[in-house]
Every structure is written in structure tokens, then in C-alpha cells.
Amino acid sequence: MTQQNAAFEEQFGGIPAVWLRFNQFEAAVIPSVGANLVAFRDTEQGFRYLREPDQEQMDEFMAAPAVYGIPILSPPNRYEDGRFPWNGEVYELPINEPATGNHLHGFLHDAEWKVDGFGSDELESYVVLSQEVKEGHEFYKYLPFTFTVTLRYSLSSLGLQQQLNVRNNGKERMPNLFAFHTAISVPFAPESQASDYTAKITIGQRRELNERSLPTGQFQPLTPEEEQLKEEGVSPFFAAMDNHYTAEPQNGRNYMELTDHRTGDKLVYDVGTSYKHWMIWNNNMAGGFFCPEPQMNLVNAPNVQGIPAEEIGLIGLEPGELFEQTSRLYPIKAQK
Q1: Degrees (nearest 5) of the Cα angle 264, 158, 68?
Q2: Which helix (H) or strand (E) holds 185?
Q3: Rounded distance, CA 138 to CA 129, Å?
Q4: Residues 154 and 5 sit within 8 Å (Cβ to Cβ)
Q5: Low-confidence residues of the chain, pLDDT below 70?
């Protein structure tokens, strides 16, 4: 490809992908594995902002796509005993996490998505992908609702934009619960170390989780490092984290900001205020990446009593209604 701005089909690690290029940015989406956006790069600086599977990790990626790139989860996180009460019915989801006896992460992150179109002009390079859930779909087998999810990714001078749309095509109110298990690369600059980085995230309160990783309904006091996480920033590997927080926007924005103190560069992940919760997971401090996960609903929300649905993000869509939320990943260059 000689032109600078482009959208085209080409493989990523031997799997068909749609690539986007705009100025110094490039990104790649794999439609057949959950429409996972597996790469977002600044090619001028050599920065790779997401945890990408390399050629030797493609089998690993296929087996566990939720720990690379930007996987979409619905319904997200854990549901006690697979139970999912909704509209007076109790649906049964498969127990796919035997250690906790829960259902985990839903049915969209490893599904094959349709490419509706892609293109490029002087303003942006984009791709649109969709998932139509209806009879015969794995999601419908357990949660029999008919709807269309659309993901639009675009690169422009403003970085990477993600637009999520959900439309209820059915005749009854449906659950509208989504999250993104976004895997951010630490370090993202090739010459830097993980120790050069601090992360700030607009967390609020930390929810207590029981031995099955389900909320107890109680809050836990934030540690000094967690206070730093929400204020000036702290290493994303200060402790082993698989933590559940309320989101508390600051200055009207709900975001994660990762700073490389060696270069002065920052990566901002502005997720939008529909995501009322953050999950933060750092793979037991193994290094290389961590996951600041914007999540609409409290873990296990349909089974939680006594808290207003709006507060815990247990929201639904009426027939014909459309939900939309936009998120953005973008760099802030070091001040010279």
C-alpha cells in the first residue's frame, strides 16, 4: 500500500484481518475472532499500545482471545451458578469457570463477526463489523433475545475511536450488558521498561468480592496505592489485581491514562460514562500488559438484590431502542 491512509484486507498472524492506516497510526481487527482489535500502533515512534499476539502466540490467541487486544464481552464477567434472572424468567448460562462455579464472559468475544464495510478518505480510515443475534446463535440459545451489535473502529488524527451500537430487534425488553477486556501493553515504547510507567484510572469505590469472585454488596477501603491510582497515578503492577471498582468520572471524563516517564508520552483510554464500573486485572503482576476493563454492569448484577438497577448498570433496551457509546484510545505526545 503506497497511500498513507488506507483500509484493506490482509492477514494478521495467518488469520484474515482488516487493517486501517491513517497518518502515523495503524490498527488491525480480526473479524472471525470476536471482532477483536488486536493492534493499535504508532508506526513513526514504534509504539504498540495493545497486547498483540505474535506469530508464535496465534494458537494461544485463538484459545484465549480475551487477553489480547480489545475483546467485547456480553454479558460480561461472572454470573453465579450461571443464573441470569430477567423479566421474571431465570435463564441458565453454561458454567464455563469450574473453579468458581460461575459463567464467565458471555458469547461474543470468540464469535465470528460480519464485516459490513471498510474504507478510507482524508478524514479517517474505518471498518464496521456486526453481530446479529437471533435463533440459532450461541447467545440466543441461552438468552433468547434478538438484537444487532455493531462495532465501528476508525483511525483519524484523533487516534482510535470505537463506537458500540446495540439495537433491540425483538418484542420484549432485553438485557444490555457489555464490557471490553482491553489489554494495554506495558511498556508500549520499545526501549522502555514496565518500571517507567504509571497508570491513573477514574475509579471510585472498591467492591468486596467473595471467594467465588462475586460481589458481597460491601465496599472495601482503598489502599494508599489505589488512592494514587485514582489521583496522580501508580505502577499498574503495584499488587496482584483482579479488582472491581465503581467508575467515578473526573472532570466529565471516565478514563485510564498510562504515562511513560522515560519518554514523557501518554496513552489515554477515554471510555465514556455508560461504563459505570471498572475491572482491573494485571495477570498476577506477570508484566507485559494489564487490563483496565470498562464494564457497564456490576458483576453478577441480575442476581443482586436491593440496589437500584441504574446504579449497578443493570440496564435494558425496549423493542426498537438503540444504545450507543463511544470510546477512544489516543496518545498525548511528550512536551519537548
Answers
A1: 75
A2: strand 184-186
A3: 18
A4: no
A5: 1-3
